[in-house]
Amino acid sequence: MHNRTPTMPASPYSPPSGLSRASAGMAGVWQAFRRAAVSQCHPTMLFAVLLPFLIALVGAILLLWFCWTPLTGWLRDEASNWSVVNNVDEWLVTVGLFSLKVYLVPVIAAAILLPVSGILGLAIAAVFVMPLVLRHVSQREYGVVARQGRYATAVSVWNALWVSLAFALGWLLTLPLWLVPPMAVLLSVFWWAFAFSRMMRIDAIVEHASPEERKILLRRNNPGFWTIGLVCSLINLLPPAWVVLPVFSALVFAHYGLDALQRLRQEKVIEMAPH
């Protein structure tokens, strides 16, 4: 009988080297986009596109119907007090070009109302469509990843609410900076990257990851989640993409999050194995 001094297994969540983790994270991002493109072509996911798109469309119509006139009227009154706008408008009219206020007020109103309908569609996708996405991808590609999440619906709804409010508030507060080129594009990309990454990353893992696993995944894969959000935000600059982007982004985050969770649990099994 051999005497052997037992060795304590390493912590199940002790981090691997930063370099290998970063490399795996960036590779996982592009792998998630490839897998999402394939998943998006499935009839179930094509049908799922309709829900957030129709809700965002109805939301946009209602916002324009009820808010366009009072909002443009308020903006026109406010614009009359902006000396810079008045001076530029007067010069343009004097040289026989056009009135700046005629075009500026509708553009600002659209820049306020359309993102509201967009974030509504994204929130609907996060809360209601993401469970459909998770069922679809988990049954086909992540069957070994057990569901260990708790209070998934409550966490998802709360996350969608605070991200939507933060997005709307940040968008409105930084809207005056749009007058400084090229801040209009940069701020739009930043705020949509914030919305995609902060909203979808939680919903992608909340049903499967335990609270402890969720904290580790969010900390470990934060650059990957932000990269996906940035890419989705850049795609969002193309209006035709608005139809499929809520569901497609959910698929990308689901693939990336579930794959990261699967890797985390594999590390746990390996590190707990006796030496």
UniProtKB/TrEMBL annotation:
Ranges annotated as spanning the membrane: 44-66, 103-130, 151-172, 178-196, 224-254
Membrane topology: Multi-pass membrane protein
Keywords annotated in UniProt: Membrane, Transmembrane, Transmembrane helix
Subcellular compartments: Membrane
Name this protein carries in UniProt: EI24 domain-containing protein
